[in-house]
């Protein structure tokens, strides 16, 4: 599966547009990570616990989007975008979406 943020793939021709595909996940913070993150915020630097959490969320959301695209018969996804939103205190949704297409 080719996934791009542009509306075309260099060297490929879009022969069929299948429609929008999406994948999402909602992740909640973990008390152990919150304690470590709180300490890190005092001394400064990257909060790697949250970086890892968001990386896992992105991968899961992409995987779900790709599954949907494959079920539609796509071999590429164009115009891919990410959106995050707070669902409740301590929990966030990560949504990825794009346009499923067939390219040659």
Poorly predicted residue ranges: none
- Helix fraction bin: 25-40%
Global shape: elongated
Structural class: alpha+beta
- For the record, what CATH class applies? Alpha Beta
Structure in words:
This protein is α+β, with helices and mostly antiparallel strands and 104 residues long. Helices cover 37% and strands 41% of the residues. The chain has a single domain, classed as Hypothetical protein apc22750. Chain B (Translation Initiation Factor IF3). The chain is built from 2 helices and 4 strands, in the order ββααββ. A 4-stranded mixed beta sheet has the order 1-3-4-2. A hairpin with a 2-residue loop joins β3 (76-88) and β4. The mean pLDDT is 89.
Index terms:
41% strand, 104 residues, alpha+beta, four-stranded mixed β-sheet, 37% helix, Translation Initiation Factor IF3
Quick rundown:
With 104 residues, the chain is of the alpha+beta class. It has two helices and four strands.
Summarize the helices and strands and which ones pair or pack.
Blueprint: E1 2-3, E2 14-28, H1 31-43, H2 48-72, E3 76-88, E4 91-103
Parallel strand pairs: 1-3
Antiparallel strand pairs: 2-4, 3-4
């Amino acid at each position: 599966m080719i996934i791009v943020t542009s509306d075309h793939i260099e060297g490929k021709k879009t022969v069929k547009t299948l429609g929008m595909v999406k994948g999402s996940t909602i992740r909640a913070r973990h008390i152990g990570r919150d304690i470590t993150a709180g300490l890190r915020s005092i001394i400064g630097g990257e909060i790697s616990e949250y970086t890892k959490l968001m990386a896992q969320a992105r991968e899961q959301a992409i995987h779900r989007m790709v599954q949907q695209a494959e079920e539609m018969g796509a071999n590429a996804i164009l115009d891919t975008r990410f959106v995050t939103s707070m669902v409740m205190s301590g929990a966030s949704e990560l949504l990825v979406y794009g346009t499923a297409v067939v390219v040659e």
